[in-house]
Amino acid sequence: MDARAISLVRTTFKAVAAVEGGPGKLTRSFYAILFARNPGVRDFFPASMEVQRDKLVTAIAYAIDQLEDLDRLLPFLGQLGRDHRKYGIVDAHYAAVGDALITALEQFAGNEIWTEEVDSAWREVIAVMAGTMIEAAAADDGPPVWQGTVVEHLRVLDDVSIVRLKLDEPMDYSAGQYVSVSIPSRPRMWRYLSPSIPANAAGEIEFHIRRVSGGWVSPAVITNTARGDRWTFGSPLGSMTRHTARGRDRLLIASGTGIAPLRAQLMEMASRTDNARVHVFYGGRYPCDLYDLSTLQQLAAINPWLSVVGVVEDETDPWWYQGQPGGLPSGGSAPIVGQLGKVVAEFGTWADRDIQIVGSPSMINTTKFRLQSAGVDVSNVRHDPW
Ligand SMILES: Cc1cc2nc3c(=O)[nH]c(=O)nc-3n(C[C@H](O)[C@H](O)[C@H](O)COP(=O)(O)OP(=O)(O)OC[C@H]3O[C@@H](n4cnc5c(N)ncnc54)[C@H](O)[C@@H]3O)c2cc1C
How far from the centroid of its chain's Cα atoms is residue 371's Cα? Predict the structure, then answer.
C-alpha cells in the first residue's frame, strides 16, 4: 500500500468520523446494506447489534491507524481471521462485507470526498485486510471453536466472579492473550475474556469476570453461571507479549479483572528460572477490590524476581462490604493509597522497562500519560488494541 492510498483512506475515515453521529450512522448503514444484500448473514449476529456496531468501528479505526506498521497490523488481522472461523464464515462473506462497507462509506462521504482515487484506495486496503484474514484462517488447522464445561464458579466480590472450566480439547494460547467467549444464556453475543492461568494440556482454563452494569453478558455470567454450563470459545488473540524481550525488566500495571492476563504471565514465568525483574502494580477503588492480591503476594514471596504493590483509592473497604478485609494478606504489604497511574509514575524510574497496562481505556490512557510525563518512552508501553 503506498503512502498516498493510506493517506486517502485515513482522511476519508476521519471526515466520516468527524460528522456528528458519524461512526454510528456509518455502521448502521453498513449493516443495513450488508443484511439487505445477504439476508443469511444476519444469523451470525446477536439480536441486539448495539455492541457489534462499536466493535466494527473500533476494529476499522485500529487497522487504519496501523496501516504503516504492517508488522503489527498483519498478525493482528491474522488472529482476527482465525477467530472469525467461529462464525462459520466463508470467503464470499468477506467479499460481501467489503462491498457493503464501500457502499456505506461512499453514501456517507458524498460525491465530493468519494473520488475514484479514494474508491480504489479503500478497495486496496479492504483487499489487504480481507486477504490476510482469509489466508490466516485457511492456514490454521486447529479447531474453529472450543467447548468447555464450567467446573467451578466463585463469586469473589458482589461484582466479580472467577469461573473455571475444563475444555473438551486443550487450547494452545500464550499467557496474556484473550479469547472470545459465548455463554449459553447469551448466544452469539461474543465477548473477550482473558484467561488468568497459562494454557495446559489438561484443558483447564480460568477467567475473572467483572459485572458491567447495564451490560448484556457480564451480569448474566455473574448471576447465572452454574457447574455443567457449556461455554464456547474462539481462537486466541492478542500480542501484548510478542515484543517482550527476554532478560529485560518488566513493569506490569492492572486494575480490577485486568489482573487476569498478567497473572497468567506471572504463573508461566514462575515455572522458569531465568526471569528478569518484574514489578506489578495492581489497582482498585477499595482494598476489597484487590481480591487476587494475596495470590500475587504469595507468588512474590517465593520468586525473588517479582515485586507486587497494591494500590487503592480508599484506605478502607466500603460499609456495605461484608467479606474478609480485602487487600491485606498476612505477611504482604498493605496497599498504597492513591491514584494508580500517579503512584506508579512516582514509585521509581521505569524508562528501561517493558511495560504492559491492562484495564479500561480511560485507566490505560491516564496511566500512559502519567508514565510519559515521568519520562517513559511510550513505545515501550503495550496494551490490547481495543
Ligand atoms: C482484550 C479484552 C480482554 C478482556 N478481558 C476481560 C476479562 O478478562 N474479564 C472481564 O470481566 N472483562 C474483560 N473484557 C471486557 C469484556 O469483553 C466485556 O466488554 C465486558 O464484560 C462487558 O460486556 P457486557 O456484555 O456485560 O457489556 P456490553 O453489553 O458489551 O456493554 C454495555 C455497555 O457498557 C459499556 N461497557 C462495556 N465494557 C465496559 C467496561 N469494562 N467498563 C465500563 N463500561 C463498559 C459498553 O460500552 C456499553 O455501553 C475484555 C475486553 C477486551 C477488549
Answer: 21
Q: What is the CATH number of the domain that holds 368?
A: 3.40.50.80
Residue nearest to atom 9 of ligand 1 (CA): 209
Residues 21, 115: one domain?
yes
What are the pLDDT digits (tens) for 24-59? 888 888 999 999 999 988 888 888 787 777 777 788
Are 170 and 199 contacting, i.e. CB atoms less than 8 angstroms apart?
yes
Q: What is the pLDDT of residues 254-287, one digit of tens each?
A: 999 999 999 999 999 999 888 999 999 999 999 9
Cα–Cα dist 208/156, whole Å: 9
3-state helix, strand, coil in the chain (%, to 5): 45, 20, 35
| Cα(341)–Cα(366) distance, integer angstroms | 7
**245 within some domain:** no
Give the range of the structural domain holding residue 188, as residue numbers without chain letter.
146-233
Of 58, 182, 191, 217, the residue with max ligand 1 atoms within 8 A of its CB, to mutate for a pocket test, comes to 191
**Same domain for 159 and 134:** no
The response to whether residue 214 sits with its C-beta less than 6 Å from ligand 1 reads yes
Task: Name residue, grid cell 496501523.
Answer: 66
Checking if the pLDDT of 128 tops 80, the result is: yes
Looking at the fold, whether 98 and 170 belong to one and the same domain comes out as no
For ligand 1, whether the C-beta of 257 sits within 6 Å is yes
The closest residue, in CA terms, to atom 19 on ligand 1 is 191
Q: Is residue 203 part of a domain?
A: yes
CA 298 to ligand 1 center in whole angstroms? 29
Domain boundary among 139, 164, 184: 139
Greater confidence (52 vs 379) lies with 379
The alpha carbon of 297 and the centre of ligand 1 are apart by a number of angstroms equal to 27
Whether 266 and 282 have beta carbons less than 8 Å apart is answered as no
pLDDT tens digits along 309-331: 999 999 999 988 877 665 455 55
Label the pairing between strands 230-233 and 204-210: unpaired
Q: How many domains does the chain have?
A: 3
Q: Are 135 and 152 within one domain?
A: no
Q: Is the CB of 51 under 6 A from ligand 1?
A: yes
Is residue 241 domain-resident?
no
Question: Which atom of ligand 1 has the smallest separation from the CA of 160?
Answer: 11
